[in-house]
Amino acid sequence: MAVTKYEQNGKELWQVYVDLRSRKDRRIRVQKRIVGFDSEKHALTEEKRLFRELSEKLASLESKGIKWRDVIDRWERHHELYPTKRYARTTIEDYTSLLRNWTTPWLNRTASDLNRGDGRDIVHFAREEGKSTSFCKHLKNTINLIYRWGIEERLIVGVQESPVHGLEIEADREEKVPEILTVEEIRDLLRKAKEQQHPWYPVWVAAVFTGCRSGELQALKRSDVEIVSRTTAMEQEQLPIDKRRYGFIRVRRNWNARLKEIGPTKAGYWRTIPVSSEFYQFLIHDLKIEEKAPDDPLLPPFSDWRLGMQATILRGFCQANSLPSIKFHTLRACFATQLIGSGIPATVVMKICGWKDMKTMQRYVRLAGIDEGGATERLSFIPTEEAVMEKVVNLFQYTKRPPSGS
């Protein structure tokens, strides 16, 4: 608060300036300046009135809570200071970046003032930008998550639900079929890579035989692989397929290209992947695993791989060889769908691949078509040759009728 004198056109005048900041939240601030008073007494009277006015405004702002931008910032800092298994560092970054990019009109608004109409505007904008139903649902869920946290932490007051709570997201008119390769296309990809001695050939083989994520493959060491002796491997060939055991791979770590560090797997727990007979031969003869030290990386440690260039390299190879252009993660999908399609229970595939819930698993079940297999076998509409021949008139047995009345 201040009343000061100044001179304008040779005349003495007074001005009033009031600046108030909240004690609850130092970022909440109100201020105002009024000039042109012809006497100090008049200015002092106005100062008192202005102080009351701004005090009421400050109290109103405090009762509403903080701005949406500040809610996002505080959620981010809270989870960085108090990390949990639920949110990895990259997940926190993804969520906050998503909201800062797609709720820009909200950032400087008081969070409690946001309503359902504001929520519809954000979803509509995302749709106009060509975003899919799944993206819009993810955006909605992220807003709900952080907004509810703000309510629970008493940062957002006077409301019970987020601006997008209960908002329906219209489904896409046409769902895109995910990238996937057939068995022949997988074989063609690996055959051409081997013929051309492509340096990434071992990586792609490991991906389709283990279903590991890119970062998990990078983090694998020789000590993570346990295989049987060659003598035992020969004995395994005499057993039924479901009784053979060539060894296993223990997936315990994941390379994070964004953070440039080794951390836990995406699911947060280790898992075991069985080694097949074909992959066993590859480990022995191509990777020469028996010659590696325990701490040696299982696969070639390409610098481009560390930088997250695996998808670009795979797409480039596919395009150059007239193969279906796929991303690296598609190899994981191929592994899952081929297992499901060959009759391996979805729950077993779920354990091997490291998925936490059946919702993710169902996407691959749909791709494999295992639930639909044989469903149409009971339909029988097309007539057989025998049924058709029974109705054919034998022209040689046809006799002309005598005229009527003869």
Low-confidence stretches: none
Derived structural class: mainly alpha
On the 0 to 100 scale, the average pLDDT is: 86
Query: CA-to-CA gap between the ends?
Result: 132 Å
- According to CATH, what is the topology of the largest domain? hpI Integrase, Chain A
The proportion of residues forming helix, as a percent range, comes to 40-55%
Task: Please give the order of strands in the largest beta sheet.
Answer: 1-2-3
In what range is the share of β-strand residues? 5-15%
CATH architecture group name of the largest domain:
Orthogonal Bundle
Overall geometry: elongated
Give me the Rg, rounded. 35 Å
Short summary:
This protein is mainly alpha-helical and 406 residues long. 46% of the residues lie in helices and 11% in strands.
Structure description:
By secondary structure, the protein is mostly helical. It folds into 3 domains: 2-64; 68-152, Orthogonal Bundle (DNA polymerase, domain 1); 183-368, Intergrase catalytic core (hpI Integrase, Chain A, Orthogonal Bundle), CATH 1.10.443. Helix content is 46%, strand content 11%. It contains 16 helices and 8 strands. The chain has helices at 40-64, 68-81, 89-102, 116-128, 133-152, 183-195, 201-210, 214-219, 230-236, 277-286, 303-306, 310-320, 329-341, 346-353, 358-368, 385-390; strands at 2-8, 11-21, 29-37, 225-227, 247-251, 254-256, 261-263, 271-274. The strands form 3 sheets. The chain has a 3-stranded antiparallel sheet, with helices on one face. Strands 4-5-8 form a 3-stranded antiparallel sheet. The chain has a two-stranded antiparallel ribbon with strand order 6-7. Helix 2 (68-81) runs antiparallel to helix 3, helix 6 (183-195) runs antiparallel to helix 7 and helix 13 packs antiparallel against helix 14 (346-353). It is elongated and about 105 Å long. The chain starts with a strand and ends in a 16-residue tail after the last helix.
